[in-house]
Amino acid sequence: MDQLKSIISNFTAWPKTLLRFAGELWRELWVRVVVMGCFAIVALGLAQAIGHFLPSELNGYVSGKAADRLLSIIANAMLAVTTFSLTVMVTVYRSSSTQFTPRLHRLIIQDPTTQNTLAAFIGAYVYALIAIILRELGVFADERAAVLFATTVIVLAYVVVSMIRWVLHLQTFGSLMDTTRQVEGITRQQFEARLSKPCLGANPWTAEDQVPETADTVRASETGYIQQYYEESLDQAARACGVDVYICAAVGSFVMKGDAIAYCVPKGDADSSEDGDLLDIVRSHIQIGDVRTYDQDPRFGLMVLGEIASKALSTGINDPGTAIDVITRVARVLSLYQDETKSEDPPEHDRLWVRPLDPTDLVEDGFGALARDGAKLIEVQQRLQSALSRLMEHDCPEMAKAARIAACLEFRRAAASLEFEPDVERLRRSTARVVLQEVEGDE
User: Fold this and answer.
1) CB half-sphere exposure, 117, CA atoms < 13 A
2) Backbone CA torsion sign across 41, 43, 46, 52
3) Domain map of the chain by residue range?
4) For 171-252, where are the alpha helices, taking DSSP H only?
5) What is the pTM of this model?
6) Of 340, 335, 342, 405, which is closest to residue 368 (Cα–Cα)?
7) What does pLDDT average to over the chain?
8) Residues 200, 205, 206, 207: is their CA dihedral positive or negative?
9) Could you give the angle at the alpha carbon of 173 between the alpha carbons of 182 and 95, nearest 5°?
């Protein structure tokens, strides 16, 4: 909650951070349920208000019993449908965790179609209950039931549409193809967002840039994973305090309590009134949690894809086709890579310094686990070498170099694991010539 307190205290200064925080809340199921419940209450209030302005002939066109029957149908059906939907969600969550990887649980829990459907069902249930109570209290009398009936019909129509979308969604929800597509989608989304704002809009902190000895060290207040930075408000706080902030803990990295996560370097224009709280301010803008998330962390998405492929290659499942599909998806994401240190645009947050993405780490996150577990499967190794060969032609020299290093390593691993000589020859035909020359030259 430190992040929330810091954001609220600077409401006017950090609207972008507030919008981001609102977006995070919107991914929570309870928020959508509360919003739909509020809409139900507002709809009943509007129905009551509109009913006073309608002529008596139109108000009496529909009897109160007709509205009561519709409300009874909604109240009886929505509770059962909501329970069924929750059961489906939990079942898919458990089966996906067992069959694919437990790291998928956040995607399943935050699935927007599922959340919207549950919110619609619960909102309709709340609407029906409150409407029935108001009918019993005489707020909606029989002579003013026309607007209530019309509003109830609209709610029923919305429920039917939500149910149809839910049924169509269930056709693929939790399937392997849909799951890998979702992981690739969110990984690609986070990767593109990161590359559109290189180093999250901060200055690239390369190996040549040294932190001055006069820097103040910001240490982690708890043990966990770096989940995200609130870079917009952190940059403004750094500017107000007259410092540069060097963030040494990358998003997704694991830190222990007391580990250095950032450094504050005075710039000579510090505001002494805020110096005492500077380290706490910086610490509050670096979110630490017990699990990694997909926000600002494309490496985590690549790792999850690799875990899905690795699980498919286990002895009990033995599904090399899934591993081949994942190789294609990982290569498609990595093909988007751009060198963050060579951006022509000035940094948006010039008081912040962030480590750029390392293409070697990206390649290892995506291909490392599946390459190890599929070392004895020639079809997997052929597709892996084919994908790495294409990444070796990447416009960015750093990505091309990382792909070449990985191709050499995985060729050695596969050649040592394959016991059938014709399979080794097939692997050689699928491997780039420069890789073969480098491997054979070393030997």
Assistant:
1) 25
2) negative
3) 19-174, 298-344+356-440
4) 176-196, 231-241
5) 0.84
6) 405
7) 85
8) negative
9) 95
